[in-house]
What we know:
Strand order of the largest sheet: 3-2-6-7-8-9-1-10
Structural class: alpha+beta
Oligomer: single chain
Distance between the termini: 43 Å
Largest sheet: 8 strands, mixed
Number of helices: 9
Order of helices and strands: EHEEEEEHHEEEHEHHEEHHH
Helix content: 10-25%
Number of domains: 1
Mean pLDDT: 93
Strand content: 15-25%
Amino acid sequence: MTIPPSSTWKITRQELSEWLDALAGVQTLIAPRQVNDTLLYRPVNSSREICLQFDRPALSAKEFFFPPTERLLKIEKKGKEISLAETLPDVQQVLFGLRPCDARGLSTLDALFLKQPPADPYYARRRENTTVIVLACKEMGPLCFCTSVGGAPDDPTGADIMLYETDEGYQVQALSEKGQAIIPPYWQATQATPPSVQVEAPVYSVLEHNAWPEQFQADYWQTAGERCLSCRACAYVCPTCRCFIVRDEMIRPGEFERLRCWDSCSGENYRRVAGGHRPRANPGERLRNRIFCKFYYYPEQYDLGELPACTGCGRCIEVCPVNIDITEILTDVGRLA
Length: 337
């Protein structure tokens, strides 16, 4: 059930710190924190460890719902008897300070892991046990392009609570019952509307959904893919990439675990079949698949409508060692149409 928009509060910076300290005392609090000069979403013990002035962390918050590596099952074999034990997560956590692009990324993952039957029990458990607090952006980062892909610096998609920084402190808006549940009862609600966030943003042309198939055979993809190293860094920093591989590992004789690990369509051996055949043998084909997945395949398969499976966070541009820029690709493909 959605909470009415009138459920808003105005708080000071001191009240914000006290609230976060209280949350950290009863459950896992994850927030932007400096780790060896890199800003990451990481567990914190108090509000003093949290960085509030930032563009966006180097990695998305995807890993707290869909970890890079996680155990799905523990398998034991005793004689002819085999037993399986699921290892469902049970942690209660609050994610504070997510940027809107990362919260929207969670909604994109929901389309696969929750809304497409059968729901993934591991992802579903983490999603259920997590409250998401989003901090609206005051300005666009140098590589951000969320406004070109249906997002915004104050996009509430995927948030349980929205925070807006003001001159006096913060304005808080509860967007779900889960968010309402962690609001201190002594805060005085107001009827104030959320502040409008006005930013200057670059505008990139994105093909309409149904226009993408016409560009599938374009020679452009081979040229664009010549630089790609198939390193998969773009997928690992992406808030919405969800490919994975499952494998079994022996812990000790008679005891095994089934692991799920991140994978990427950019990898050379992705979807390799028996006999060694690789359906996308060259980098251009793999780059084309990644872009089509974001802007055509995923929206088509999981009913996203005109919204792409790209949040415009710009992380893939930042980490690419050979300067492949998704905004350049969108511009180039738009010129081909």
